[in-house]
Each structure stands twice: as structure tokens, then as C-alpha cells.
Specification:
This protein is mostly helical. It has eleven helices and two strands.
Length: 232
Amino acid sequence: MISFRPAHGRIRIATLLFILATAGVRAEGPYLHGFDAIALLPPPPALHSPEDQVDRETAFRVYTARTPEEVATAKAEHKVTIFAFAPAIGPFFTPDRFPKTAALFKEVDAEAKPIIDGAKDTWKRPRPFVADPARFTEPGDPEKTPDYPSGHSTHGTLFALLLAEIFPNQRDAILAKGRDIGWVRVEAGVHTPLAIYGGRVLGQSLAEAFLRSPAFQADLAAARAEAASAQP
């Protein structure tokens, strides 16, 4: 328990608030230890700054050119799972045939999500339809969390890079699908390009951190063996 003392041992209120605000940004789990998203990512530009305005104008151009199919894809991928990559990997990639792989990525998601959420909560950058509701009038699959970095882009990049370790022959298609998982959020009007790029940087760094973990490598070997036996 933290106590406040009137003497020199007192913790300043501002310091305590900073600790509480960033507590979820560092990762601690079976695979990740001490991963710090705030030290990795640059802060987004200030709201209404020239850089921010250019980013939002680009988002609006993409949003106005979207197709109904792109909006449908964004809604279908509201929750990103590894099985969204089945079109890139093959129709055999289903939950019933890959229980070990599904369990592995469930833990990956459990460790990555607090990092993503902590970064979002640190900067609280408003989404396009929040900052400019007069123009982004029909966002596809709107969410309440902040814009930067994009969770879908982070997950798409992270999952793609790790799945490519299990299915190396499909690597290019897997990585392309990972990019699309992020970019479709701009088409839907729920993210700006800057949020997607931030997510890609975060996802790539997370993937590198997972791959450095001996515990993750051991479980990855089991997923590779499962894939070898399940593929036609």
C-alpha cells in the first residue's frame, strides 16, 4: 500500500498519477517482460496542428472512397483473431484443427492488449468520427477507445509476423493480410493513417520481443508441429 507522509518520504501526487497512468504500458507475462510502448512510439501530433490536419484529411479521402465490401470487412473483423488469416494460409486453418496454435495466440493477445490499451490511454488521441463528426458521419464499426496506435493494425502486424514463423511458405500472403487488417480501419473511417503506422511499428516490435522469449519459442515449436500435421 502506498502511504503519503508529510516528511521527505512523501510521493508527489503528479508522480503517482504518472505511475498509475502508465502502469498498463509495460508488459509482464510468461513471454514478455518490461516491454514499454511509450518509450518505443513517438507521441501523435497535437490535435488541429498542421500535421494532424494532413493526417485527418488523408483519412477523409480514403473514407469517402470506401466500398460497401470494405465496410463489411471492417465489421467482420471487429475482433481480430488468427483465423482471419485463413484466406492467406488455407481453408484448413480452422480452430478445431489448431487448438495449440489458438491457445498460443490467446496468450499473445492477453499480453499485447494491455500494452496497446496503455498507449492509447496515455495519448487519448480522438478517432476521426470523434474529432470531425460532421464529415465522418457513418463510421463502419466505431469503437470507444482512442485512435493512436491502432489496435487492429498492431494485432494484424503482430499476428502476421508470428504466423509467418509457423507457415513460412505463405509468408507474403500472411503479411499482406496483416497490413489489410489495419488499413481497412481507415477505409471504415475509424482510424487515421498515422494510427495504422503506429500500430505497425508497435506490432513489429512486439513480434520481435515475443520471438526473443525462450518460453515463447518452446510453445511456438509445438504450434509448428501442429501445423505440420494439420496441413493437407
